[in-house]
């Protein structure tokens, strides 16, 4: 373990980029589109959370028996060292800060008549997440006694959110532009002309 003060500093290394780089996420959303930034955020987060959710594990592999008939085993273990865990946490905070800005970029595009209400709803969900998730983390830890269960839960949440976002946006596009016969990348800005699907 590490001293409590050191643990607090290391925990703060996640919160710092998660807050500081929101402006960069807004700039990227303006330049490349909020959807691109959201996909980048979700996919990168899924990869990081998958690695972080893997618990400290030891393996014993039964190999080919030796010439004298004795068993041959191969032993190895997997686990993130402290520096690797902290590094992934900082990167996760960074990419999530980009996604926060992209979410608010989406609101006036897909809900132009309800910007205030949807923005308030997004803020409410974020606040509830900060209240509910720590409780869920504690429950999972009590049930399974595995520290990485919290990241397994986050991996599931991010995975479901990625699929939900993709399906919802494609459905809205097909309703607004029924002439589309297949998926294509549309502009995030409704005032721009809609490109024709590639042949």
Automatic annotation (TrEMBL):
Major facilitator superfamily (MFS) profile domain: residues covered: 1-199
Cellular component GO terms held in the UniProt record: membrane
Keyword Lyase set for record: no
Region (Disordered): 180-199
Transmembrane regions: 6-24, 36-54, 82-103, 115-140, 146-167
InterPro entries attached to this UniProt entry: MFS (IPR011701), MFS_dom (IPR020846), MFS_trans_sf (IPR036259), NO3_transporter (IPR044772)
Membrane topology summary: Multi-pass membrane protein
Any one Gene Ontology molecular-function term assigned to this protein's record: nitrate transmembrane transporter activity
Gene Ontology biological process terms in this record: nitrate assimilation
Pfam families named in the record: MFS_1
Cellular location(s): Membrane
Entry annotated with the keyword Nuclease: no
Alphabetic keyword roster: Membrane, Nitrate assimilation, Transmembrane, Transmembrane helix
Segment forming the signal sequence: none
Assigned protein family: Belongs to the major facilitator superfamily. Nitrate/nitrite porter (TC 2.A.1.8) family.
Protein name (Swiss-Prot/TrEMBL): Nitrate/nitrite transporter NarK
Source organism: hydrothermal vent metagenome
């Amino acid at each position: 373990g590490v001293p409590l003060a050191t643990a607090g500093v290391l925990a703060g290394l996640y919160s710092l980029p998660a807050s500081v780089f929101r402006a960069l996420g807004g700039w990227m959303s303006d330049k490349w589109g909020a959807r691109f930034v959201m996909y980048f955020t979700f996919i990168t987060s899924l990869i990081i959370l998958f690695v972080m959710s893997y618990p400290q594990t030891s393996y014993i592999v039964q190999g080919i028996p030796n010439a004298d008939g004795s068993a041959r085993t191969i032993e190895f273990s997997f686990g993130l060292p402290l520096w690797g865990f902290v590094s992934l946490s900082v990167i996760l905070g960074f990419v999530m800060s980009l996604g926060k800005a992209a979410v608010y970029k989406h609101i006036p595009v897909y809900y132009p008549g309800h910007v205030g209400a949807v923005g308030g709803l997004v803020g409410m969900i974020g606040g509830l997440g900060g209240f509910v998730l720590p409780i869920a983390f504690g429950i999972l830890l009590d049930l399974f006694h595995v520290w990485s269960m919290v990241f397994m839960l986050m991996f599931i949440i991010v995975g479901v959110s990625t699929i939900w976002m993709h399906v919802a946006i494609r459905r809205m596009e097909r309703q607004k532009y029924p002439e589309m016969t297949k998926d294509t990348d549309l502009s995030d800005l409704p005032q721009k002309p809609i490109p024709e699907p590639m042949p």
